[in-house]
Amino acid sequence: MDDDFYNALFERIIHVDPNILREIELHGNRFNNTKAIIQVKEQELMKHKRAMEKLHESYEEDIIIKQVYVERKEVRSKMIQKLEEELRDLRKVVTDESEFPTVDDIHQRIGKFKGKWSSVATPEDQNKALKTLVDRIIYNREDNRIELTVCYK
Description:
Blueprint lengths: L2 H12 L3 H43 L5 H32 L5 H16 L4 H11 E9 L2 E8 L1
Antiparallel strand pairs: 1-2
Helix pairs in contact: 2-3, 4-5
């Protein structure tokens, strides 16, 4: 491959498609929304656990009868279990998505890549520099035209 190809590839990589940036930004917003949902669910869970404690105290102090206690306890227990399962699933989503890059991460990586690229001399060194930023490049070739899609790390 010639210098024109590598120069075109370099330009394509450092100019991130605005649609990709928008998608990364939306992902960040969803990530933050998920964390906010977790906080709300945690508060709701604590509320139900406190209510369960008060229910138990009411039963011990003979404020409510056993049948009422058992019925209310069953309802609260199911709600607590449901919330704990939801929280477990949401925390897994947050853990899985926490390593997804932000727009700032992409720009920082591109800056580092530019520095490395300017100091490389051989195609092998260029490939090594590319591997620090790019996960893979998907291309679609039609006649003499090549369309590249860059998948960043």
